[in-house]
Design a protein that fits this description.
Elements: H1 13-16, H2 18-33, H3 37-44, H4 48-55, H5 63-73
């Protein structure tokens, strides 16, 4: 019987960090867009080496990297964050708390 038979493999150190989880989410998104690392690198103005190091967890994603890559892929940076970091948006029409904004900022107030 092999050492890993019947057991799930332990996640790598990079996958256990929030940056590693964001990198995994980024890899999934890249695959779903059907693009290569080279295409992503060209689109965001970085090298393929730079992109590869970040999406493979060798260099932790920082917030600037996360924003650049997310925007290049056409998504909000929050979509790449681990789910426990992202609070659901309040929906005042569905029993949620109202969203506060500065007076006069809503051109179509409800009342």
């Amino acid at each position: 019987m092999g050492l890993l038979q019947g057991r799930r493999a332990m996640p790598s150190r990079a996958q256990r960090t929030y940056a590693g989880q964001a990198a995994e989410n980024l890899r999934v998104l890249i695959r779903s867009h059907g693009i290569t690392n080279r295409e992503l690198a060209d689109a965001c103005g970085r090298s393929e080496f730079w992109v590869g190091k970040r999406i493979n967890g060798h260099v932790p994603l920082d917030l600037d990297d996360l924003e650049l890559l997310a925007r290049t892929l056409g998504v909000e940076p929050a979509e790449l964050l681990p789910r426990e970091w992202v609070a659901p948006s309040p929906d005042p029409t569905n029993g949620g708390d109202a969203v506060w904004a500065p007076r006069g900022s809503n051109s179509q107030p409800a009342d």
